[in-house]
Amino acid sequence: MPFLNDVWYAAAWADEVADGALLARTIAGQPLVFFRAASGALTCLLDRCPHRFAPLSRGKLTDHGIRCGYHGLEFSGSGECVTNPHGPIARALRVRSYPVTERHNMVWVWLSEQDPSRAQIPDLSFVTETPPTAFSKGYMHGAANHLLLVDNILDLSHADYLHPETLGGGSVTRTRAQVEERPGSIFVAWHSPNEIPLPIWRPHLPDGHERCDMWTEVEWFPCGVMLLRAGAAPVGQAPEQGFDTMNAHIMTPESSATTHYFYCNSRNYLVADAEYNARMAVGLRYAFECEDKPMIEAQQQRAGEIDLLEQHPALLSVDVASTKARRMFERLLSSEARTN
Amino acid sequence: MPFLNDVWYAAAWADEVADGALLARTIAGQPLVFFRAASGALTCLLDRCPHRFAPLSRGKLTDHGIRCGYHGLEFSGSGECVTNPHGPIARALRVRSYPVTERHNMVWVWLSEQDPSRAQIPDLSFVTETPPTAFSKGYMHGAANHLLLVDNILDLSHADYLHPETLGGGSVTRTRAQVEERPGSIFVAWHSPNEIPLPIWRPHLPDGHERCDMWTEVEWFPCGVMLLRAGAAPVGQAPEQGFDTMNAHIMTPESSATTHYFYCNSRNYLVADAEYNARMAVGLRYAFECEDKPMIEAQQQRAGEIDLLEQHPALLSVDVASTKARRMFERLLSSEARTN
Amino acid sequence: MPFLNDVWYAAAWADEVADGALLARTIAGQPLVFFRAASGALTCLLDRCPHRFAPLSRGKLTDHGIRCGYHGLEFSGSGECVTNPHGPIARALRVRSYPVTERHNMVWVWLSEQDPSRAQIPDLSFVTETPPTAFSKGYMHGAANHLLLVDNILDLSHADYLHPETLGGGSVTRTRAQVEERPGSIFVAWHSPNEIPLPIWRPHLPDGHERCDMWTEVEWFPCGVMLLRAGAAPVGQAPEQGFDTMNAHIMTPESSATTHYFYCNSRNYLVADAEYNARMAVGLRYAFECEDKPMIEAQQQRAGEIDLLEQHPALLSVDVASTKARRMFERLLSSEARTN
Fold this sequence. Notes:
The structure is a homotrimer of 340-residue chains.
Chain A: E1 8-13, E2 23-27, E3 30-36, E4 42-46, E5 60-61, E6 66-67, E7 74-75, E8 81-83, E9 100-103, E10 106-110, H1 126-129, E11 135-142, H2 146-154, H3 159-162, H4 171-174, E12 178-182, E13 185-195, E14 212-221, E15 225-234, E16 243-255, E17 258-267, H5 274-303, H6 320-339
Antiparallel strand pairs in A: 1-10, 2-3, 3-4, 5-6, 6-7, 7-8, 9-10, 11-17, 12-13, 13-14, 14-15, 15-16, 16-17
């Protein structure tokens, strides 16, 4: 199962690449090392010294870049060898450097030889615009193909069965999804007027509001960036008068069978309540790590090494969005194969 | 190494499929889920939802069958979809159901498409006829091909070397095995008049009985059901006046390199002695888990992925029974290949 | 990646094959068992009973050899079956026996069918000539191809980066290696007059000796035996007036991806200081297990299953010795392929 190349991959939360840190992370099969150079420049190099293949991430940051911990070759942030303690600097003494940028509190890397300037990073500006007491984030490693994790969010009816005490409740199942193919993304929405609110919201509704109007909207951008908005308002009132949350779920392939999963949550209610924020963070972490992850990893084990969709699963109405996303993914792969 | 199809496989001790339980177990490469339906009917389904391949064993029992824990599809015990919360029930929404029966305190499953009605489950009626204080049973997972575990019991001379302080003592080695090919089974017997009794029996013999008449008989039924009778009587007396034990050793393949091993033991002496019974259970568990299992797993590692018998081991007289069993197994495999 | 055959492999420190012990160790892909027979003769047999492939190392020593723990076949040190409790001793009942010898406190084994008498074991006589208070030794298992471990010692410039606080210090990097191809070995020397002494030696130099003359010499003998001499003397004085150490580093392949690593150290200073000796042993163990081993295992992971040198790494001047050693290794492999 090949990977997309001409995309910005979310590689890390920005604070994972702290000053002085060397973060080793494999993205789409490429072993990479991320660090901030002495100049402050965010840097990504192939995590493999060209001399003896030692991981540079086992080396040390220097004033001029990074020094291999095995025999002392030093490379600048552009991958040029700047010091060879053992002799002249031959042309072969260079390591591949990757375009890398920091946006929305995340580190993004570009693996392709193509020009990245025309490629878009999806707008996650809510990440930096939310006060810390209304925001939480996490990272999870998953032993499943990244597309199985994407499928999971494009069909949120799963929440009614996998997270019935927290994020489920039946409303998504009872609501027909509206799926829209947009240029460069797939959008799916569940608009549920006069519905039973999600369990996590029930304690916070005004008395007498046993039902409310709810909305859930997901947009998927290849490769693996997903925006999820969900909220509820008293029946008949404008959304602005209700609860609203904006979330990101980002699935970056590590290998064809493993995935880096980044998630975050922001909200417009109890915005200054740090204690509620902490409880919400724990609850989401529990749902993702203890409910989603084991189910999807078990699904991967049952599917084995052959892509699930090639094994003729029975498709339901709830699979429309994920099927469209996989088709778009395949078209992008084919298009890259023709270009490269 | 293929598996037999047209046989009843012992899948579990009956109490492993308790009311309300979902038992996930792979038999001969098939991932299965066993449960007792609300109606009480013992049920076995393929443990893979046809929708997204989630294991049904991660779901929940319902009044009508089992509900997938991922998106809520509900299947009856016959594998029909009875609820699709997301739309109509298409024909593809069914999961394979397997004939399953409970006999001799075990759950048996039939994996083949053939009619099971003419196939026999070997008679293990001693299992339900023995009082609890004279009976013990166990389950062990083994990292070895099931036929290596069968070989082990068809050549009980191994007890003289692997279990010298408990089940050995030299008498089996000193006795010529009588091997008999029967319709549908292989039978092997060691009849040892005037022999040194097994170490486990010595403390219980009347004074002055340093020697006794002993018998050990094993019958193997494909696939993997083995009956083992062993006993001892004072020299010259009838067997009824001595110790007699009836045992089952059942090797059900999980994969070509792993095996479910079920064993049980019953006896006709100290029948009401619960304390002795508990000590015997511990002793047998020790012999099987700490002596047999490591040796056979090591043997599997030395043999590797190629069947041991294809690697031209040196055969001894003690291998007659296991060789006949493997030939019968091969004939059954060939016969199934022609039929199916 | 094939192994050399016509060499004496270092298999164990002599004390690993204690009286009464059965040492199971795989050398160059062959599972072997080492023991001392009742006669005292050091013995090596294939660790696989010809009957059912049980490891003989799970058996017991006897007066006449070793008895298989599974069915009691007994083999002499020459691999002949001397007891078959189950019948006559057929010709097939033999296990391969390997020439084995004890020298320099190590057990050496010969895997080839060729005559070993003309093959040399490198001279490690310092091992038995050093008093115990000036000697230490160790064993380490490494998850890397043996040649990567050889490369490590043939290019000691790595010490300046991987062991900067103990064995490094920059002098090897600043010194041009003299590499010499000898009949049957590769020799490399770093002679460093008027240099900064190694960190481990600094506390022991007389006052006012901020610099000294240093020497480091390594000789590699296939397969995997390396002698390492390193020392330092006050500037302009004869080596005899300084510190001198003799070391062995021995890399015996277990499989193509794992290696048995034996090392030892002797010295000519503080010869009676047991406390210093113990500290030195801990320090070396730390350097090898906590600095070398993780780096080389990481290098192996980056290289994967293809030999590093076939992946066109950038070679430096410091790689001259290891390149010559690998060429000699390849020539020996080719020569064996023609002969055998």
